[in-house]
From TrEMBL:
HAMAP family: DNA_HJ_migration_RuvA (MF_00031). Residues 72-91, 107-126 form the Helix-hairpin-helix DNA-binding motif class domain. It comes from Geomicrobium sediminis. It is found in: Cytoplasm. This is Holliday junction branch migration complex subunit RuvA. Keywords: ATP-binding, Cytoplasm, DNA damage, DNA recombination, DNA repair, DNA-binding, Helicase, Hydrolase, Nucleotide-binding. InterPro entries: DNA_helicase_Holl-junc_RuvA_I, Hlx-hairpin-Hlx_DNA-bd_motif, NA-bd_OB-fold, RuvA, RuvA_2-like, RuvA_C, RuvA_C_sf. NCBIfam families: ruvA (TIGR00084). Belongs to the RuvA family.
Length: 199
């Protein structure tokens, strides 16, 4: 599983960019590809979400870890797939999306492409009060880098378990049991799988 790609943007179109790393080009779908400049001599960081379906593995890229986590949360809402989640993030401001959810502003949410009233309401029901991971700079400094690192790695591991087909009930139990450990995403996944076997 990829946490991030660090390389040069060598190509982009209306839905994706190509990140070149030592001569290997990674095709990455983005909410706003034109936020990245084509520059073969500059290295950029693209945070990655790996989406696995039966006949394909697709990489989705984000400018920040917070954007990536918001994307993964949106995918958990019934009626929202990767294309719809990217359309929401194309707004370019995660806090606008979160504020609309927290304030139950269905009118604002239905302005995003593909989001109707039913889906907007489902977003509010599923996500309200669960998106406090997007913090402003002062809050991030106060929390410290270790907390942010642990939260990101644990969130990524839980997303990987979802991609592997595990249910939310099992995942929530594993997440609760593993909180407070300073592990990488891969280590969290391995520990969770051990917990599943033991039970």
């Amino acid at each position: 599983m990829y946490e991030r790609l660090s390389g040069a943007i060598v190509y982009r179109d209306h839905e994706s960019v190509t990140v070149d790393i030592h001569g290997v080009g990674y095709h990455v779908y983005c909410a706003n590809p034109f936020a990245y400049e084509i520059n073969e001599s500059a290295t950029v960081n693209v945070f990655i979400y790996t989406h696995i379906i039966q006949d394909a593995i697709k990489l989705f890229g984000f400018k920040s870890r917070e954007e990536r986590v918001l994307f993964s949360r949106l995918l958990q809402v019934s009626g929202i797939g990767p294309k719809g989640a990217l359309a929401v993030l194309a707004e370019g401001n995660s806090k606008v999306v979160i504020q609309a959810i927290e304030e139950e502003n269905e009118t604002m949410l239905t302005k995003f492409p593909g989001i109707g009233k039913k889906t907007a309401r489902q977003m509010i029901l599923d996500l309200k009060g669960k998106l406090d991971f997007v913090m402003d700079e002062e809050q991030l400094m106060a929390t410290g880098p270790l907390f942010a690192k642990e939260s990101d790695a644990l969130d990524e591991a839980m997303d990987a378990l979802r991609a592997l087909g595990y249910g939310e009930r099992e995942i929530k139990k594993a997440e609760k049991a593993l909180q407070g450990n300073d592990l990488t995403a891969d280590e969290y996944v391995r520990q969770a799988l051990r917990l599943f076997v033991e039970r």
